[in-house]
Every structure is written in structure tokens, then in C-alpha cells.
Amino acid sequence: MTLVGQRFLLKSAKRKLLLMLSLCSLVLIASKKIRNSARDEDCTFRIAGVCNYDPATTVLCHLPDESKGMGKKSDDISAAYGCSNCHDAIDGRARNEEFEAHRDWYMRRAQVRTWRILIDKGVIKIG
């Protein structure tokens, strides 16, 4: 390998390390307003064969993202309103083939639905 090639690899490795370090030092985005806004809302996951459709059991369900770690929840903006049954499916406490087959779709749909509700309530402002 040429000297130029070696320098490129070192710079590339250094960039990757800096990116990893910056991701590790992310500040958790936590909002009591966002968490409390889930109270008595409809479940936004509505997983077929899982959802109990009971707003009394709805909480803010944290979704996996880069801010999540061992013993650490993800950011409150990486979350969606979910009933107790859907929350169990999201966290892996209950298994469901429908959810497992379409996991990413259910989570993305629920997150966008929740963001729309948060914007309508004025909890999150854009612009």
C-alpha cells in the first residue's frame, strides 16, 4: 500500500472514531410535556391482533435509536403513543408475528402519527 493510501485509511479511521465519540456524548432529549401528552390519547401503533384500543392504557413508548443504550431510554422525540399491549410488543415482552414481520413500518407510522398530534397540541413547534 502506498503512503497516500495509508494516510487515507488513518484519516478515515479517525473520522469514524470521532463520529462514534460524538454519538456517545449525545445529550438525552427529555420532555415531561411530551411524556404527559400521551395520557388518554389513542394508540398510534394499532398493531393488528395486538392493540387493545384503550386510551386509558396509553403511554409514551420509546423506540430504538442511536441515543438508546444499556439501561438508557431513547429520546422522547424517538417515541410514539402506545397502549399497554402494543408497548409490550415494542419492548419485546409479548411476541406477535404480524408486528415482527412489519416492525419498522409500525414504528415509523406510529412515530409520525404521534409527531402530528404533538404539533397539533402545540407541544412541538416547527418554524
Overall body shape? globular
CATH class: Alpha Beta
Instruction: Name the assembly state.
Output: single chain
The CATH H-level homologous superfamily = prophage-derive protein ybcO
Q: Can you write the helix and strand succession as a string? A: HHEEHHH
The N- and C-terminal alpha carbons lie at a distance of: 50 Å
Give the percentage of residues in beta strands: 5-15%
Radius of gyration: 19 Å
Physical arrangement of strands within the biggest beta sheet:
1-2
| Average pLDDT number | 85
Number of domains: 1
Task: Give short descriptive properties of this protein.
single chain; 127 residues; mainly alpha; Erythroid Transcription Factor GATA-1, Chain A; 5 helices; 6% strand; globular
Account of the protein in words:
By secondary structure, the chain is mainly α. The chain has a single domain (about 30-120), classed as prophage-derive protein ybcO (Erythroid Transcription Factor GATA-1, Chain A). Helices cover about 45% and strands about 5% of the residues. It is built from five helices and two strands. It has helices at about 5-25, 30-35, 85-90, 95-100, 105-120, and strands spanning about 60, 80. A two-stranded antiparallel sheet has the order 1-2. It is globular and about 50 Å long.
